[in-house]
Each structure stands twice: as C-alpha cells, then as structure tokens.
Design brief:
The complex is a heterotrimer.
Chain A lengths: L1 H20 L13 H10 L5 H10 L2 H5 L18 H13 L6 H12 L3 H13 L13 H12 L10 H5 L17 H13 L19 H12 L5
Helix pairs in contact in A: 3-7, 5-6, 5-7, 8-11, 10-11
Chain B lengths: L4 H5 L5 H8 L1 H5 L3 H8 L6 E5 L3 H13 L4 E6 L4 E2 L4 H6 L8 E2 L2 H6 L3 E4 L2 E5 L4 E4 L4 E3 L2 E4 L3 E3 L9 H6 L9 H12 L5 E5 L10 H16 L4 E5 L8 H12 L8 E4 L7 E5 L4 E4 L2 E4 L2 E4 L3 E3 L1 H5 L24 E3 L13 H19 L8 E11 L2 E12 L2 E4 L5 E2 L7 H22 L1
Parallel strand pairs in B: 1-2, 1-9, 2-5, 9-19, 11-12, 11-17, 12-13
Antiparallel strand pairs in B: 3-4, 6-7, 7-8, 10-18, 14-15, 15-16, 20-21, 21-22, 21-23
Helix pairs in contact in B: 5-13, 5-14, 10-11
Chain C lengths: L4 H19 L6 H6 L2 H4 L18 H13 L7 H5 L4 H12 L11 H14 L5
Helix pairs in contact in C: 4-6, 6-7
C-alpha cells in the first residue's frame, strides 16, 4: 500500500510539471525518426519492470480503455498485450513528443497521458504489456471463406506485382511483431483499419522513413478490412 | 443570448471560422428554406421558438427529428451567438471569442427551420400570437421560450447595470464582458488581488465561478506569482467543492501561507453587501476588501422575456411541468433551460440541451395526439481546475414523486483518488465535450 | 348536438389514456435516452474523431458488455460508471438496439432523410412503434 501511495505521489509530481508547461494543445516539435536516432533512443531507455508496469497501468487508468492486461474491451481502442517492448516505448515517445498527433482530438488522451510519464514509467509499462501474449480479439469474427485465401497470400507471400512485401516478413509468421514492429495478432479491427487509412492519407507519419506507409497505398479498402479481420482472429498458440 | 453579441457581430466575428468548423454548406445554404417552406402542408402546426441559444436551437433541431412535417420558426435577436461555455478560457487566453461564436445557419438549412432575426417583445396567449420589435405578429400553435437569465443588481448596495458594464464586470454572458475581464486580469499589478464574488443559489453554471478562480490562480502562477485570488462567497458549499479544493491544494497551495486562492465562505462573512466602484472595493460581513479587479457575479432570476411574458412565479423563476417543460402558468407555452425550476438539474448548457430534447418529443407527441413517453434527462458538467486538470459532476434524471431527481445511482462528482490519470482524462473529456456539445446544438 | 354513446366512450378512453400517459409510462424510449448521449458522443453517436468513442453502429453485445461492466464497476472509468448506474438492463438494451442502427459515418456527412430513416429503424429494433 505504501508503495502504491509513493507511486501515486511520484506520478502526481510528474503530472504537475506537465500541467504547468502545457497550453491548450501546443504541439511539441520533434524531428522525424531515422533508423539511427530511433535505435539510440530505444537503447538509452532504462530497463522496464513488469510489476511496476502493472501498477502504472492501473494508476494511469490505462485499464479503462485497454483492458486488464492490454486486451482491448472496445472496438475503439488498440490492444496492447503482446506488443514488443520497443514498440510500446516508441509509441509513447511519439505521442509525448508530437510525432503521433494524427487526428489530434482522438489522440489527445494518449498525448496527455504520455506527457505525464517519465522514461522509467514508460519502460515499465512496455515491459508489462510484453509479458502478456496476444490473444484473438474478444469480438473477432471468422473471415469469410472467399477472403481467406487471398488475404493469407498477402500476409505470407505478399504481391510481387504491386511490390507488396509479405506482412509476415516484418510482423512475424504468427503476427507477433518484433522490436519496433508491432504485433498484429488479436488487434482490434476498427483500430487496424483506422491506422492503415491514416498511413494512407499521410495523417500518420511516425514510421521510420515510410517503412509502413509505403505498403498501404496499393491496398484496397476491402483488402484492408479483410486483413483487419484476419489478424483480429489470429491465434498465436 | 449575449446582449453584446450584436455589437461584436458588426466587427470581427466572422464567417471564416464558421466555414472552417462546419463546412461551406452550413454558411451558404440558407436559401434552402425557401424551397422546403412551400412543402409544408397548409395544416401543418406551427411551433415558434423564442431564443436561438442552447435551449432554443437544440429544441428546433430535435423537434425536426421527432416530426418531419411540423413548421418551426426561431425568433432570435442576434445573428450570432457566443457560448458561455468555455468563456472562462477566453479570459485567460486558452480560447478566442471567435472560437465560441456560432449561428443558426445549419439549423435553418439542414433542419428546415425558419429563422427570424428580430426581438420578441410580447405575446397574446389568447390569440396565440407573438409580437416582435420590428412589428411582426406571428401566430403559433405551440410557443417555446428559452430566455436565459437576468441579474439582480439591486441585491448589492451601490451596484447597477451601468457599473456592471463599465467597471465591475460579471462575465456571465459571454462577449465584451469576457474581454473586459481579460483586460482587467492582465492589468493586475505584481502582487495584486483579484476578487471573484459568486452569487447565491440558484444560478447559471454552478461551477463557473470556481473554475474561473482556478484559471485566475493558474494564470497568476505563470505570470504573476505573488498575486492572489480571493473568492467571496455567500455560500458554505458549492458544486464539486471536494474535488475543486483538492485540486487547489495540489496545484495552487490552497490552505498554505502561499496559496494563490483564498475562499471565504458565507459563514466566514463572504457575502458581498455593497460595492464601491470608485475605490474598487466591496463590503462584506467580514469587512471591506479592496482589490485590483472585482468580478461580482450577481444573484439571478429568469431572463427578461420570461418576466415580460408572465412566466415567472414569486421565486423569480419559471415553474414547469416536469414531464414536458410546459409552463405551469400558461398552457401551450413551454420554457427551457436556465430560467426554469428544474429541481435537481443544475442550470447548465447540458441541462438546457437535455430538456430541449425531451420537450421536443413531448411537443411532437402532443401535436399528433400520441401518448407521451417517459422523460429521461441527463447532465454532465466538466470544469477545469487547471488547463490539464478536470473535475466533473454527472447524473441521469427522471421524474419521481413529482420532482426531477437523479435516476438510479447515477449522481456523483469526480472521485478524489490517488490516480493521477483521473483529472488529466477529465480535462481531455472536457474539451471533447465542448466541441461535441456545440455541434449537437448548432449543427 | 347529439353525442353517440360510442363517441363518448372513445373520448373517455382517450382521456384516460392521456392521463395515464402523463402519469408515467414505464420506460423511456431507446431513442429518447440515446439522444441524451449526443453532447459527448456526437449527434446520434456519430462522432468518429474524438477522444470519446462513437456509438453509432456499435454491435449490441459490445454496447451491453461495456455498459454492464461500467455499471457493475468491473471496468474502470472516468465518468461512464456514474452514467451507467442510471439505467436498467432493459433501458440499456433499448439504447443498444437503437445505436446499432445508426450509420457509421460522421454526422456532418449524413443527410436529414438518411438519419430519420436510421432513427426509425433504431426505434423499431428497440421494439417501439414509430
């Protein structure tokens, strides 16, 4: 209990700093990532502790939108369970520093929450989510039979005609992600679609040197929808 | 409706912002009404709405949802409306008045509502007509009045409407009053004092004065750290006082020697008795307070139009049927928003919006001889105790034992927890709410 | 003027109905309750770019799961726990049915006619005749 109170006190002093410095949504200016700068930044982060991460997950009310272990209870929010540590860290830094302000009003919660956390707390959270494996999303529907084969092909073989690298080559054969590349297995389909559209339109641009967005332009709306459902239902076991 | 909107609208408050917010169609499509007007059946009943603010505008839109054929007319004095919502932000510079300025163009075009910019000055309830300042006489089948509030300057010796427009501003109708307060706040000298004197219950926007005190403290903390806010209150409790005071402790050193806010309760003599505009001082039960700015928010009663139309009772407010918001004093006349006696519901924009929807359904059902459905109301008030620190009160309401009361176990203020995310999220939600709310009212 | 007994009876019955209706019907309509959510979730729940989630087109089960979890305190919340405690299971279900029928697109892009049809479909799904 004492630990919890101390943690709360620490978090409060941090948030007070954010309160003193923030205006109504003044956007911080951060340089776009290069592979080199991102690598250095991730390396410079303290190592995380999953137990402390669990406390922060509750104290910062991450659990209100992202579920008890990061498994989203809602179509509106991303699942975080099973995300590689580096990915969670990168997202939190991107929200904090102004790189992930696509459609700002929707991202505003994450911007404000990330600005109230320090590097150690972010690393702890990342460790907590990485500890829990992905699972099929609660409300996932099986993909229509006719869409199974072509979607599976895009995931595992890509499409040479359209210069589409297979999704699995970066995101893993089981959609488990790797480093700063997110896990996709069990991801919430609405969030998946929203993300792909945001990359397509350029509204989201925190990927390193268009590493993700370049693959979104040649996909049709139907393909994106099918991919979303494919991954939402994916079971890593 | 802001009594100052007219003068402002002559100047800078422009269409640019509206186009940016609502799209071209909202501004350009006013002509559509001409077409749809002819489409009304001759027998279509006519509902006339006096006042195009939160209550009136919401009512017109939702009456269209409830009945696609009824003829609807809004009579509104000013072509533009400045919301009181977030006007505290303007005082400290988080928002501009432009961002809080709206008009009825979308309501007119999208919901086929006839908008007349004119001032209603009287009504003949027997003939069922309304008279306007420009001499129009407009017949109605149902009349809806959303008249806002009026101030009781006479409750303070030495105070007057004139003084309230030149020096001792209330900032409780958004517009020049808001800008005048901003100017005064920015002029408070190093180590100076600002007084905020909230009114007696009941009054519009119960958390308003306390949010304003918080904003003043936050402004001083950043720009004038030895200055101070003194709240002179006639009351011993105020809405959300628990979470507000906790926030003041966390943010502004409340109840320490260096506190940026001092709150004097009614029991401690906080009630203002008289005002001295020349010396910038107020006299209270606890003695005389001199300050660099005095923001006296006077006691209130129902808006002037409600008084003129005889819709108020001895309390100064409008008694209504709790199920429909039909006036208890005048059949076929409905009253919405701040001016009504709505029991547990606070005088808030959310309440007016909520009542307008229930009233719209009731008016539609009555006009079509359908049975009334059960009335459910809602209110959520988010306030900021700092730019990134929100507090809220929320409830769902129903009519029980003849009164509007919280439904189920819904009523509650923000819990005071050790979770740092709670106030941060409430501040985000507050801003979300404001953007959505004005869309629900005006577009 | 002569009044037939039948007319008198009809008048009496309709008067009773009106009085009864005014006294208190059992439950508000799903539509009337859903309208009350607009100031945060958008007109008819059709706001898709805000911090607060859209409700339009939400599958009934997802709406119910969320509201019941808020009401029973099993899902942490900033404000929805308080709101959810104002509603019974039946009321939540009526709202859920109504919202599920609202179009998944921003309010600004929805015409009045389109919305009136969707609102009517919502009322029918909620078991209320319109």
């Amino acid at each position: 209990m004492l630990k919890r109170t101390l943690l709360a006190a620490a978090l409060f002093s941090v948030s007070a700093i954010a309160i003193a410095s923030g205006g109504h949504g003044e956007k911080p200016q951060a340089n776009p990532w290069t592979h080199f700068s991102l690598d250095n930044q991730i390396r410079a982060m303290p190592s995380g502790d999953a137990t402390r991460g669990q406390d922060i997950h509750s104290q910062m009310m991450c659990n209100a939108c992202h579920g008890e272990k990061g498994e989203s209870p809602s179509r509106n929010y991303a699942s975080l369970n099973g995300q590689p540590e580096a990915y969670t860290i990168k997202m939190m830094l991107d929200y904090r520093d102004g790189r992930r302000w696509e459609n700002y009003h929707q991202a505003e919660i994450m911007v404000k929450i990330s600005q109230a956390l320090n590097d150690q707390q972010i690393a702890d959270l990342a460790s907590f989510y990485a500890q829990h494996k992905t699972q099929p999303w609660t409300y996932a529907q099986p993909l229509a039979a006719a869409e199974q084969a072509p979607t599976d092909k895009v995931v595992r073989k890509g499409d040479f005609e359209r210069m589409l690298t297979p999704c699995a080559s970066c995101h893993g054969a089981k959609g488990e992600g790797n480093g700063v590349v997110p896990a996709l297995a069990g991801q919430v389909p609405e969030y998946f679609v929203r993300t792909m559209k945001a990359y397509q339109s350029g509204e989201r641009h925190n990927d390193v040197q268009k590493g993700m967005s370049q693959f979104t332009h040649d996909l049709s709306d139907e393909e994106i929808q099918a991919l979303a459902e494919y991954y939402a239902a994916m079971d890593r076991q | 409706m802001s009594q100052f909107a007219q003068s402002l609208s002559n100047g800078k408050l422009g269409r640019r912002e509206l186009i940016k917010r609502f799209g071209i169609s909202a501004v350009a499509a006013s002509g559509l009404f001409g077409a749809s007007k002819n489409a009304y059946a001759k027998s279509a009943p006519h509902v006339v709405v006096l006042g195009g603010g939160v209550g009136g505008s919401t009512f017109a839109k939702y009456l269209r949802f409830a009945d696609s054929d009824v003829k609807i007319t809004i009579i509104e004095q000013y072509p533009e409306y400045i919301t009181c919502l977030r006007s505290n932000d303007v005082i400290v510079g988080y928002h501009t008045l432009d961002e809080l300025t709206f008009n009825l163009d979308t309501v007119q075009s999208k919901y086929q509502v006839n908008v007349i910019i004119d001032k209603a000055i009287g009504a003949d309830f027997d003939k069922k007509t309304v008279t306007t300042a420009k001499g129009q006489v407009i017949a109605y089948d149902k009349l809806v009045v959303s008249p806002g509030i009026d101030f009781k300057f006479e409750d303070y010796e030495g105070h007057s409407k004139e003084l309230a427009e030149t020096k001792i501003f209330h900032g409780y109708k958004a517009g020049p009053q808001t800008l005048a307060l901003r100017e005064q706040l920015l002029s408070v000298p190093k180590g100076g004092t600002a007084i905020i004197a909230p009114p007696q219950n009941p009054f519009r926007c119960p958390p308003g004065p306390y949010e304003r005190a918080s904003f003043f403290a936050e402004y001083f903390q950043k720009h004038n750290p030895t200055a101070k806010v003194i709240v002179l209150d006639p009351k011993d409790r105020f809405t959300k006082d628990g979470p507000f005071k906790k926030a003041w402790e966390r943010l502004y050193g409340y109840q320490t020697d260096n506190s940026l806010i001092e709150w004097v309760s009614g029991s401690d003599g906080g009630r203002v008795l008289s005002v001295d505009g020349k010396n910038n001082s107020v006299e209270t039960m606890a003695g005389t307070f001199k300050a660099d700015m005095i923001n006296l928010i006077p006691n209130q009663r129902a808006g002037k139009l409600a008084q003129i139309l005889g819709l108020t009772d001895a309390s100064g407010w409008c008694p209504i049927d709790r199920f429909t918001f039909e006036s208890s004093l005048q059949k076929e006349v409905y009253v919405l928003g701040d001016s009504t006696i709505a029991d547990a519901m606070p005088k808030s924009g959310y309440s007016a919006n909520s009542q307008a929807k229930v009233c719209a359904q009731a008016v539609a059902d009555t006009l079509r001889d359908r049975p009334l459905t059960k009335s459910v109301y809602a209110n959520v008030c988010y306030s900021l105790a700092g730019d990134n620190y929100g507090v809220s009160i929320a409830a769902i309401y129903e009519v029980r034992d003849g009164l509007i009361q919280p439904k189920g176990k819904s009523e509650g203020v923000s819990p005071i927890t050790d979770k740092p995310a709670q106030p941060i999220l409430e501040a985000v939600y507050q801003k979300n709410w404001q953007r959505e709310f004005v869309k629900d009212v005006f577009s | 003027m002569q009044t037939s007994p039948l007319k008198t009876l009809i008048a009496a019955v309709s008067l009773m109905a009106a009085t009864h209706a005014h006294a208190e019907p059992q439950m508000a309509t799903g539509q009337a309750m859903a309208w009350q959510c607009a100031p945060c979730h958008g007109v008819n729940g059709q706001e898709f770019s805000e911090a607060m989630p859209p409700l339009a087109g939400m599958p009934v089960k997802q709406f119910m799961d969320a509201m019941l979890a808020y009401r029973e305190g099993t899902r942490p919340a900033v404000i929805m726990d308080r709101v959810a405690r104002g509603f019974t299971d039946e009321e939540l279900n009526a709202m859920a049915q109504w919202f599920a029928k609202q179009p998944i697109k921003p309010w600004e892009q929805t015409t009045l006619q389109e919305s009136l049809s969707a609102q009517q479909a919502g009322a029918q799904a909620a078991g209320e005749k319109q």
